[in-house]
Amino acid sequence: MSEWIIGVVTEWGYFGIFLLMVAENIFPPIPSELIMPFAGYVAASGELSFAGVLIAGTLGSLAGTSAWYVAARLLGLARFTWLCNRLGRIATIQEDDIDMAVRWFERYGPLAVFVGRLIPAIRTLISVPAGLAAMPVGKFLAISAAGTVLWTGILTVAGLVLHENYATVEAWVDPVSIAVVVLAVVIYIYRFVTWKPIKDIG
């Protein structure tokens, strides 16, 4: 798995990182916890720059999470709920997930967007209440970017460290990365099978 991700990043470069992060924020095929460290690993080898990797990862993450913000803001509560009831099973969006994101946003406001970008469980869905509340686009993007840069920066630095110590950790890098993806797939299948229509997210 590590070789595949590294291969994608190496072959497609910054655009590959961007696409992987867009997909990760719309639905979770591969978690960013694997994408960005391996992108950082490639950067450490000299094929890409650290700044370029960080920018590509941040822009991809923002593009993915902004899709949910735009959908929520343009559609409004009733139509967004309608959309989720038709596509929610594919994206494994549960009513409880959105309820949690809404509660976070109602309690912490803009801070929830920043902190939410650091937490896997609500990283993408925090965009929904921000959109429903018509949070100004510029403010949403600025706060989201701050949280995203911090998160992707930490993961990219982890990749740099991985490169420097690859000989030491080589024996378990691939098994661990495969285990992470397998776990993500199992969770996805479980959520897909147990998904229920969303009644109300207000």
Automatic annotation (TrEMBL):
Stored InterPro entries: DedA_domain, VTT_dom
Superkingdom of this protein's organism: Bacteria
Record-annotated membrane-spanning stretches: 12-30, 50-71, 140-163, 175-193
Statement: the UniProt record of this protein carries the keyword ATP-binding: no
Keyword check for Metal-binding: no
Domain VTT: 30-159
GO CC, alphabetical: plasma membrane
Main location: membrane
Subcellular location: Cell membrane
Any Pfam family matching the protein: VTT_dom
Protein name: Alkaline phosphatase
Species per Swiss-Prot/TrEMBL record: Devosia geojensis
